[in-house]
Fold:
Amino acid sequence: MNDIPRRLVAEALGTALLVTAVIGSGIMADRLTDDVALSLLANTIATGAALVMLITTFGPVSGAHFNPIVTLVMSFRREMSVALAIAYIIAQCAGGILGTWTAHAMFDLPIMQISTTIRTGSAQWLAEALASFGLILAILGAINARANVAVTVASYITAAYWFTASTSFANPAVALARAFTDTFAGIRPADLPGFMLAQIVGAVAAMWLGGWLFRPTK
Structure:
């Protein structure tokens, strides 16, 4: 049986729910408090908890990538075909944008928005490269250790929200989706190329290092 449609739906739905959690919790936090640190904390908790659920739920179906850099790494490692990787990335980006619109609809905001939040500069790009590097290394390390990938990834992203200057997007599909919201979680479209390039560079570096670190020992 061809299970590719199921895998693509899982990737689109999982990314949509992840983005809904990121943006929805940001809107809710912004409405409940004027304290930026408290808003970020609420955003962090919601994102981490959502990641555990989503990866656990959809992992057996699609691998629960929800992230083009994860898909790229798996393709570079020849764990999936190029054609399937492209289909995954399209599904993730479409799902992410749908998640943004869903969050807007829930909070009675205009569905179509463009972010005006400036997130650019060498410090932000370095933060995104580091966030993506750590994410891929966490995934490869958890797989190698046969650890719980969902908890490992969620724990890392929860921490990286706070120790990176960019609040750890580490995901081109989520970054793209966040360009379509002028809320707490937004990013200006003009800033996307720098973020995405930094994410890819960090992911590829982690793939190379992880391939050496986690190779089978004789």
